[in-house]
Amino acid sequence: MPHPVLIAIDASPASHALLDLARRYCRPGEHTLHVLLAIDSTFAVHDHRTAYTEEELEEYPAACDEQQLAEHAVNSAVGILCEAGFESLGCMVAGQPVEAIITKARELECELIIIGHRHLSRVGRLLDPSISAKVIDRAHVPVLVGVPTDVG
What we know:
Layout (H helix, E strand, L loop, with lengths): L2 E7 L5 H11 L5 E9 L14 H6 L1 H23 L3 E8 L2 H12 L3 E5 L5 H6 L3 H8 L4 E4 L6
Parallel strand pairs: 1-2, 1-4, 2-3, 4-5
């Protein structure tokens, strides 16, 4: 039975580095790769994939755009991993990223979490605490942290 691995992405281009990391350390047939993207619940129109009504598009245009971007990022990541031969599933959840990542990893009984890191300055960490550091502190399994490819 394949071992589950959780890949926590965002909708940025840096997520491709995490997919590359997963392809480097995981093997098709041995690992099932689960892609997770958590968005702020204020930007979630629905908790599942469904068409937006005209009222929703008119009243919540930014939220609809954010959720569509997230869904596209998850679908794209799953497609890339499937093309590489992996069994891959994806989901977008509304909520706090750290809680969503930890909860999903436990639900799936993952053996590894792959997550990105943004290399924030000290001031940046004070203003916007590191999600990856919080996940590492709370995770019950190993966490593989990928760094942006443009960081030297």
